[in-house]
TrEMBL record:
Coiled coil: none annotated. Residues 2-27 form the Large ribosomal subunit protein uL24 C-terminal domain. GO terms for biological process: translation. One of its GO terms (cellular component) is ribosome. The keyword Ubl conjugation does not apply. One of its GO terms (molecular function) is structural constituent of ribosome. The gene is Mrpl24. This is RM24 protein. Keywords: Ribonucleoprotein, Ribosomal protein. The keyword Ribosomal protein applies. InterPro entries: Ribosomal_uL24, Ribosomal_uL24_C. It comes from Ramphastos sulfuratus. It comes from the Eukaryota. Belongs to the universal ribosomal protein uL24 family.
Length: 89
């Protein structure tokens, strides 16, 4: 099979379409396909996919604690040691 030679023309309604030069038929555009072969318009979510609503939920709660302080609070560890004095010259 050889690739079809096409040209772009306008219909009476003013719509731009692809037309085969050999047969004169209007050729529809192929579906947009990603590199991995997935067509986004035909995608169906599977059981392990996260829904759009869940992705858009804001669950992060910012705080001024360090990572270590957050872990200690989550694990119920209470800091009882005293910090040593430090001097800056």
């Amino acid at each position: 099979r050889k690739p079809t030679e096409v040209s772009w023309r306008y219909t009476e309604e003013g719509e731009r379409v692809r037309v085969s030069l050999r047969s004169g038929r209007i050729l529809p555009l192929p579906l947009h396909q990603r590199r991995d072969g997935i067509v986004p318009e035909q995608w169906i979510d599977g059981p392990k996919d996260t829904s759009v609503e869940e992705v858009q939920n804001k669950t992060y709660q910012p705080s001024l604690k360090t990572f270590e302080e957050e872990v200690m609070e989550a694990m119920g560890i209470v800091e009882t040691r005293r910090a040593k004095k430090s001097y800056w010259y």
